[in-house]
Amino acid sequence: MSKFKLATIVTALAVAASILALGQPAAAADRTVKIAGWGAKSGPLRSFGVNSEAVLKAAVKSINDSGGVKLGDGTMAKMEFTYYDSACNADQAISVVRKVESQTEALIGIGPTCSGAAAAMYGIFQKKVDDAADTGLQFPILTDTAIRPGLAKKSQWTFRNVPNEITMYDEMFKWLRGRYPDVKTIYGGTETDQAHSRITFAAVIVPMAKKHGFEWVGGGIKEVTGKVAGGMKQVLEVSKSSNWLLADTSFSVQARAFKRSGADMMIVSSHPFTTCGMLKEMRRQRIKPKVLVGLTSSSSAETLKGCGAAAEGMYIPTGFAPITEAAAKVAAAAEANGGAADLHSAAAWENAHIIKQVVEATGVMAKPDTLKADRRKVRDGLEALAKVDGLMGEIGRVQDEGESIKPYVFVQGQSNAWKVVHDPR
Amino acid sequence: MSYYLGLAQLIGIHTLLGLSAYVLMLTGQLSLGQAGFFAIGAYCAGILTVIFELHIVPALLIAALLAAFFAFLVGFPALRVKGLMLVVATIAFGEFVRLFFFNLSWRVPRDGIHVGPDSTNGFREIRYFVANGWSAWEITLFVWTFVLLVMAALWWTDRSRAGAVLRAVGEDELAAQSVGLSLTTVKVTAMTAGGFIAGVGGALYAHTATYVDHLTFTVLLATFAISYPILGGLSSVFGTLVAVIFIQGVLVEGLRFMGDWRSIVFGLLIVVAMNLKPSGLFDARTARLLRRAVGLRGGEKSRA
Asked: Which helix (H) or strand (E) holds B123?
């Protein structure tokens, strides 16, 4: 066989496979409640997607085991889900949501992982429902992971079930103030090329610490409670020698800046991968602050796996800990499915149950010819929700913004585990 | 249908990105700075339609001209280096542009919210198309109008004396100089044209995605830009299009059903394709065979 023929055959097979995959026709008219999930299952943030899928799988199984979902005509339908890899990439997240909306019978989507991808994806949605002049996508989304503040209000079709970091850090620094009255000064750093880490550090963590009487070493931050951008700029300016990037592998300069500061409290605002690099370097340089504070996203199994010993003593507020019967059950189920339940992925469980609740409340029919109307019902149902039951307690909804107010606890790294040290619920 | 149309838009935009590198590669230059020109086009066009509320067409052309201007500036120092040195120099330029936009914050109030580039928060609300009622069909048609115009221009160039000049410089600089060709003019012109095309692609990208941030324009995007003409072949502009369809349509989208295996199969198929078709998926031989297949006579000899 000539090379040309072989190449032709290989190409034809690849094209045929892709066409089959691309053109998955809408399934037959069975009565199932279909949902679609997507997130980073490849790339450096792969574990986030793997965890979300594992939890979603467990949630759908639990719903089906308990009889399924009651449709508008009283029929009990099973719930089905498909999980797609959209990496941590805006193009892919947009492509997946378009595929799900136009090529599947999914009633709603759950995803994506990264805030940047979510920000891009939300932008292609219709901003205001029933605005005929806006040709954006009309498909409901209930995001589980992307946590950057203020994203869901971009469209009335987009909703999130993610923790509110402003409230969590506000309460945590208030609690730390009482617990450590002798702690006066703070210092810290963040991975500046990750919007969530950077914004939470500069616009949430440091301002909240200052609000509760902790002072940045040297007093370089004059005012952070006014205009957010102004405050952020000051925080990033004073921390410029102690910040890093997601791809960094060396943290000796930043750790040295931490050491030189001599601060009582140190803040490491980054995702597990660089948090571990920084914490290990701090350990190597024998930096022992009185209090160590981390970013919400680092209260995960990845941090413990990567640097459990170095994270000893670190305080983080989180929207998930296996402290209730339901939460413990989800943590076990996620592990059985090859993932881990954490503040991001556990939301996938809640989301599946929220969807069940909304479908039953709004009389969704789950028929091919009612798909468009069903999606609208789900959207309206989500908007109407005032509160729902979550794994850690009641979840309130900020209805006009599509956001959640979730219960939270404060955890601390202790003996290679996240132990709940304060439960304000 | 919106999925296929979205995919068609993405393929069109990446084709422009690939063609921006293709022009340069004809002259023997390998640039990893195309993502930088793409970023300039994206941010500039976004700023013009969002902050200055310009129509998309002038915004797109101004953005492309600005990208071309920067490519022109980069073209001169790039003359002093070639090969891997040029790759490194253009990576540096791409990173410079990326980090510039990473730090750029320019927001203005509009309809109760602040719009414009917002540093690490990215640039949201580039919603010209959907806010003006453009359907997915119309957006796709708009994107492909530019793709076809650029392809036609390059196809025509390739068959004119200008194309021969570009390829002559790419084949042998010394020989080209000895027949009186100005390397400076040819290389800088190719760099400028590449910048213009990347700028058009970036402008279209920003408006179809509605959001851009600095992470969109990393070295990975620049690598894709040069991968398209390399994988597709330099014998014609269609090679780049074939490679984009292969990578974005078949590998990225078509293999999504493979889940965790996708990345592995992705790399494997690229290796297989490059081994089977070292001169590109759409090399001169394939072009001849296709011409024969559709009954066209006088297939040209290979120029690959």
From this structure: strand B123-124
Check: CB of residue B6 under 8 Å from CB of residue A98. Answer: yes
Measured distance CA(A308)–CA(A295) in Å, rounded: 15
Does A135 touch chain B if contact means CB atoms closer than 8 Å? yes
Q: In chain A, whose CA is at the least distance from the CA of B9?
A: A95
DSSP single-letter state for residue A201: I
Q: Identify all chain B residues contacting A148, using CB atoms and an 8 Å cutoff.
A: 121
Domain boundaries, chain B: 2-222
Give the ipTM of the model, two decimals please: 0.74
CB–CB of A17 and B254 under 8 A? yes
Which residues on chain B are in Cβ contact (under 8 Å) with A269?
A: none
Contacts of B232 in chain A (CB under 8 A): none
Parse chain A into domains and list their residue ranges.
Answer: 26-163+323-405, 165-318
**Strands A393-398 and A387-390, bridge-based pairing:** antiparallel
Q: Tell me: pLDDT of B272 over 80.
A: yes
CB contact under 8 A, B254 and A92: no
Report pTM.
0.78
Say how far apart CA B73 and CA A301 lie, in whole Å: 49
The lowest-confidence range among A149-153, A205-209, B224-228 is A149-153
Residue A266 to residue A313: CA distance in whole angstroms? 11
Element (H, E) at B116: strand B113-117
Give the tokens for residue A149. Answer: 């503040």
β strands within A191-330, DSSP E: 215-216, 265-269, 291-294, 314-318
| Cβ neighbours for B179, distance < 8 A, ≥ 6 positions apart | B168
Q: What secondary structure letter does DSSP report for A369? A: G
d(Cα A385, Cα A405) in Å, to the nearest integer? 12
Class of domain A165-318: alpha beta
Contacts of A135 in chain B (CB under 8 A): 129-130, 133-136
With an 8 Å Cβ cutoff, are A95 and B10 in contact?
A: yes
3-class DSSP assignment, residue A69 = strand
Is residue A102 less than 8 Å (CB to CB) from chain B?
yes
> Are residues A42 and B129, on separate chains, in Cβ contact within 8 Å?
no
Question: How near does any CA of chain A get to the CA of B272, in Å?
Answer: 9
The CATH code that applies to domain A26-163+323-405 is: 3.40.50.2300
Min Cα separation A197/chain B (Å):
10
Which of B122, B142, B143 shows the shortest CA–CA distance to B210?
B122
Residues B69-115: pLDDT tens digits?
A: 999 999 888 777 878 888 899 999 999 999 999 888 888 888 777 88
